[in-house]
Amino acid sequence: MTEIHSFGNLPVIAHSWNKDRTQIALSLGKNDLRIYQKVAGKWKLIHTLCEHLSRVLAIDWAPKTNQIVSASADYNAYVWTLENDVWKPQMVELQRTNRAVCCAKWSPEENKFVIGASDKNVAVCYYEKEQRFWAAEMIKKRPKSTVTAVAWHPNNQLIAVGSCDYRCRLYSAFVRVVDGQPQTSNWGTIKNTGELLYEFQSESGWLHDVAFSPLGDNLAWVSHNSIIFAVSAADPSQITMEATNYLPFRCILFMNESALLVGGHEFSPLLYNYDQKQGKIEFIEKLDRQETATGRQSVGRRFDQPVIQTQTPEPVSTHQSMITQLVPYQKENGNLVKISSADLFGQIVIWNLSDKKEIVIEAGQELRGDVDETLTLELRSGKAEIFGTELAIGHKYQFTSGMKFSIFTYWGCTIVSSHDDYYVARDENPMHIYLNVHGMLEQLRQKADAEKTRGPRIMVAGLPDVGKSTLCRMLVNWAARLGRTPILVDLDVGQNQISIPGTIAAMVVRRPASVDEGFRIDMPLVFHYGYKTPGENIGLYNEIVSSMAMYVNIRSENVEKSLISGVVVNTCGYIRQEGYESFKHVAKAFDVDIIIVLDSEWLATKLISDLPSVKVITLPKSGGVVPKDAAKDKFRENKIREYFYGPRNNICPHVFTIDFNDVKVYKIGAPQIPDSCLPAGMILKNPYNKIMPIAPSPTLVHHVLAVSSSSDPEQLLAKNLLGFVVVQHVDPDKRSLTLLSPQPNVKNRLLIMSDVLFVDLK
């Protein structure tokens, strides 16, 4: 959960909290400090501290001593002390500073603080009790440009300094009057005040912020060229850097010894992980969870055509302007669990990084859930998989609203979730049975490899909503993990997992499906059907199944690896009357060896009787399978939207106008005329595959049109598709069509009308 607090529309240059987080001190770009207190859920201004003559650039509130240090462009720094509900200032003696004081920070023990100025000066300041003033111990080997950031080591005697000369320096901040004796440090021996221990060179770009890890073993900084740097005390000579594609960062914090949080012009804090052993800094996630970044290529690449991406949608973020500062808000066991961020629009946002629940799943159990809002899951330990795709430890997987997930573990694991849209299923499930089927298929593949014969061909059948598509996905994923390249054929025209509704499709599976985005679609074979169920034109359905089977057989015969890996065929849940005959047609067309029937003894018995040469296996359905009649229309709409806009809405499709004369639109299949309407004795041939030209008219609006690869209208049934377009507008007067397309033009003039509709509300 995030808390958003607004303090007007002035920029928050700096902010700091009191000990119990009931008050906040702000610099709003003016020469005063404003202290607000939360009263009845609202922030009330209770103090205005006016002593500076120019803009206040830095604020730090010491929680234990309840003192505030402020630094300003008027060359001065003040320490504010609360006496009788009045904040009294005391100027710090910065005699050698003649430029703006850019940064100030209290030490961990709050008995001194450090300031950095634009005249290159760095001063360690402490209170001189006898003289009753704040003295400054100047660093002699000072930076060569403006000091932009300072940070304290947990031992209270080391400081890190960032400046505009592209360098981060590590100085001794030991002050004998205050510290007594120097402490040992993992960064080296501490002796005199201002002693330069290390100087780290950045590639380019001035430094904006520096930070130590909670134990002080690691140091990190960010520069204006969007690079994150980190170094470990274990090997200070090895600087790790991560050049990002984001806008420049302005601030950085260590959440723990390895987790880094950065913020800046990107509007959202970004979480990274620093692995000092491997010398890597890896991106984890945006705290806002909005995705405008990369997904897979436009689905237009399915048909091996170039994709022109014109623009990327703007993110919707909590902050609406640059993040100016990240400040620790709450710690647990030494690690940060809450931070606050400020921006140029007067907003303070509190981010709760502990909003994640840890779930322990025992061996043989399954974590299931329906996602109401964006859900992030991370495997912390053990081994687990989603539909046959193995999860990587430490990787965060995002599931968007409406998605379902099922995480199964054979060995036991620990999952961290950002929400509680899940439950652990402890009932008996058939995953071990499914895995045994995979083992049997792999043995058949090994035998085929040794004998140079054909591998297994499997057809999965059953009633609607019993998990046929999921089982097919698991079988091909498991095969791909072993280096096999099975062919996945999806004949489900209503919920096709390879192409859009109203089609059948096939693809070679070379790698397991992505957990977030599904299969990587590389040049699939797609045939037009045009309806959502086989029963609407069963003759046409059987004919395109035969065409698909012919191409799949050719592929298998010509590519030895595909021949050995075999074929997995997913079918529709249409099994009564004509549907059952269609099942038999599919089995014969693809010459299947094994039919897996899910949760239907009747169907299994019929197939055993009618197809004695085929091995029929009956398997139970998973307990996580639920009827999805209400969600089918949403699934179909999302599948079409994903085709045009990408899996994460990160693709911008093209909208263009084309003349009637530049394309020809056809419809396959004509209505069956009842026998009662025909002359006596006349028999009319079934018109299921009749190819009829369609005159462009407003009735085409919102219809999906398939782009055929055929140049001959008579070959529309026998040829595969190149892609799809949607008719957005028809202008009869100008004789033009306005089309939505992943490509900037139509590659072929022959278009096939589908009964599938898509209303683009984006």
From TrEMBL:
Domain Clp1 P-loop, residue spans: 464-646
Gene Ontology process terms (BP): mRNA 3'-end processing; tRNA splicing, via endonucleolytic cleavage and ligation
Subcellular compartments: Nucleus
Record keywords: ATP-binding, mRNA processing, Nucleotide-binding, Nucleus, WD repeat
UniProt domain Anaphase-promoting complex subunit 4-like WD40: residue ranges: 105-173
Database matches in SMART domains: WD40
Pfam families: ANAPC4_WD40, Clp1, CLP1_N, CLP1_P, WD40
Domain of life (superkingdom): Eukaryota
InterPro entries, per database record: Apc4-like_WD40_dom, Clp1, Clp1/Grc3, Clp1_C, Clp1_C_sf, Clp1_N, Clp1_N_sf, CLP1_P
Clp1 N-terminal domain residues: 361-448
Coiled coil: none
Annotated Clp1 C-terminal domain residues: 652-760
Gene Ontology cellular-component terms listed: mRNA cleavage factor complex
Family from the record: Belongs to the Clp1 family. Clp1 subfamily.
Name of the protein in its database record: Protein CLP1 homolog
Organism: Rotaria socialis
